[in-house]
């Protein structure tokens, strides 16, 4: 399978108290290998998410959070016909973190986009992370996206090996 995708993301979380938080996430995706119904569907996707949540469990080695968010999807299709589409979708999300010995952590994040007029969309990300130093880490990540709420971006399932720098 051809994969010609560039993807980047970032997030900021603000804790109001030990239980309540707000977050902002942004991501961008440029895909030149996508196909819809057998036709090339090259696109650029920009997504912004702003949400609030509640920490259900906060222990030194385990955390579990749930929340709601508002998502803005902007998609620019370049093939077969150039066009732009913007959508706003509400979502429910959950996040789980487990810290293991030897500076290993397991992270999981799931998002559900309920949609009345079509199939509900969802995303899931599961990551096993190992901190090599204070600033350098490596991880294995499994990502799944189905029926993406923006309406035109490609569904996928990916397994990634990554290197990270914390600053």
Key features?
single chain; 167 residues; mainly beta; nine-stranded antiparallel beta sheet; two-stranded antiparallel ribbon
Q: Can you describe this structure?
A:
There is one protein chain. The protein has strands at 5-15, 20-31, 35-36, 39-40, 43-58, 62-77, 83-100, 104-113, 121-131, 136-146, 156-165. It contains no helices and eleven strands. With 167 residues, the protein is mainly β. Strand 3 (35-36) and strand 4 (39-40) form a beta hairpin.
The number of helical runs is 0
Strand content: over 45%
State mean pLDDT (0 to 100 scale): 89
Largest sheet: number of strands, sense, barrel closure:
9 strands, antiparallel
- Shape type: globular
Number of strands: 11
Spatial separation of the terminal alpha carbons: 34 Å
Helix content: under 10%
Indicate the radius of gyration in whole angstroms: 17 Å
Q: How are the strands ordered across the major sheet?
A: 1-2-5-6-7-8-9-10-11
What would you say about this model in short?
With 167 residues, the protein is an all-beta fold. The chain has strands at residues 5-15, 20-31, 35-36, 39-40, 43-58, 62-77, 83-100, 104-113, 121-131, 136-146, 156-165.
What's the structural blueprint in terms of helices and strands?
Blueprint: E1 5-15, E2 20-31, E3 35-36, E4 39-40, E5 43-58, E6 62-77, E7 83-100, E8 104-113, E9 121-131, E10 136-146, E11 156-165
Antiparallel strand pairs: 1-2, 2-5, 3-4, 5-6, 6-7, 7-8, 8-9, 9-10, 10-11
């Amino acid at each position: 399978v051809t994969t010609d995708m560039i993807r980047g993301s970032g997030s900021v979380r603000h804790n109001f108290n030990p239980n309540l938080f707000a977050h902002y996430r942004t991501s961008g995706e440029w895909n030149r290998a996508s196909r819809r119904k057998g036709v090339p569907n090259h696109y650029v996707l920009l997504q912004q998410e702003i949400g609030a949540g509640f920490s259900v469990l906060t222990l030194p080695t385990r955390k579990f959070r749930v929340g709601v968010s508002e998502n803005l999807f902007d998609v620019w299709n370049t093939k077969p016909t150039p066009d732009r589409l913007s959508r706003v979708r509400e979502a429910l999300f959950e996040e789980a973190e487990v810290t293991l010995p030897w500076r290993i952590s397991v992270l999981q994040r799931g998002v559900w986009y309920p949609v009345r007029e079509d199939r509900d969309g969802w995303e899931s990300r599961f990551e096993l992370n190992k901190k090599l130093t204070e600033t350098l880490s490596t991880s294995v990540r499994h990502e799944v996206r189905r029926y993406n709420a923006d309406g035109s971006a490609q569904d996928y399932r990916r397994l990634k090996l990554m290197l990270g720098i914390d600053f």
